[in-house]
Amino acid sequence: MATETSAIATFDWARASGRPAWPRRLGRLARQYPLGLFGLVILAGFVVLGIFGSALAPYDPRELATGVPLSGPSSAHLFGVNQLGQDVFSRVLAGAHYSLEISSVAVFVGAGTGSFLGILAGYHGRWVDYLVQRSGEAFAAFPGLVLYFLLIAAFGRSVNTIIIAIGIGALFGGNRVLRGATIIERHKTYIEAARATGCSEWRIFFRHVIPNVVPLTIVIMSSALGAAILAESALSFLGLGVAPGTPSWGIDMSGANLSIARTGHWNVVIFPGLAISLVVLGANLFGDALRDILDPRLRH
């Protein structure tokens, strides 16, 4: 009897310590969500390239005549050379820095603030809900490109201007979805029980409502990350983004490069386009997996 009691006590202590649990749990999640793991690997590589891409590039991405213009992929130039003699592989690596800087800051500022406003409007209702929703409707009627032109006139053409424009565009993107989810959440039984025990409205809002809506917020922000990368690339493609000559995936797919690609030099635009597609795909896959993992309603 004493031996069994000691074994049970030892087993309970090992479970309470939780030391061996997290590696097995991570491995189980990786097996259950292989596409989410694939998206995480892509995003991690994107972050590494955004931080160290310029240092890892074999050539200066702005340098001219690094090789024979419009030459195809080779051992010296993995992705070939564009019409200016610039190494395409180096420009793809360095272009991740601007996409990471612009998209991540715009998402955290714009989509993060918009998500909080949507949750706040759904929980408190009344004039807060009216103000947030009418502001979103007014913004939806205002063309985003005109807003960007106004920001250029006010602040000049720069990375900060692009961040502000994309951040404002993401401000009201998903707050209607979060508003609806919060309205459903605030009418649940556990919220009424929390009020009955004397919890204040702000405590219920921050300790109970927000944690249950966070999984949906993560999915919205991950989708906003992909949309922000596409928006930055689109502005650069139209010649409205970063300064000409800057390593940018959108710039490398625009103008003369696009015309040259039609003549058979596909490598000039295909690799920047693949970089954009992979990052957007990775953000969406990882966001979907996080939703399935973190949302209590979707747990197996």
Count of individual domains: 1
Helix content: over 70%
**Beta fraction:** under 5%
**Low-pLDDT segments:** 1-19
Report the CATH architecture.
Orthogonal Bundle
Structural class: mainly alpha
Sketch the topology as an H/E string, one letter per element: HHHHHHHHHHHHH
Annotated CATH topology:
MetI-like fold
Mean of the pLDDT scores? 79
The radius of gyration is: 24 Å
User: Distance between the terminal alpha carbons, to the nearest Å?
Assistant: 37 Å
Secondary-structure blueprint of this entry?
Blueprint: H1 2-17, H2 21-32, H3 34-56, H4 88-124, H5 126-140, H6 144-155, H7 159-169, H8 175-186, H9 189-196, H10 201-237, H11 249-252, H12 255-261, H13 267-294
Helix pairs in contact: 3-4, 3-13, 4-5, 4-7, 4-8, 4-10, 6-7, 8-10, 10-13
Give descriptors for this structure.
disordered N terminus, 300 residues, globular, MetI-like fold, 13 helices, mainly alpha
Task: Explain what this protein looks like in three dimensions.
This protein is mainly α and 300 residues long. It has one domain (47-61, 68-298): Orthogonal Bundle (MetI-like fold). 74% of the residues lie in helices and 0% in strands. The protein has 13 helices and no strands. The protein has helices at residues 2-17, 21-32, 34-56, 88-124, 126-140, 144-155, 159-169, 175-186, 189-196, 201-237, 249-252, 255-261, 267-294. Helix 4 (88-124) runs parallel beside helix 7 (159-169) and helix 10 (201-237) packs antiparallel against helix 13.
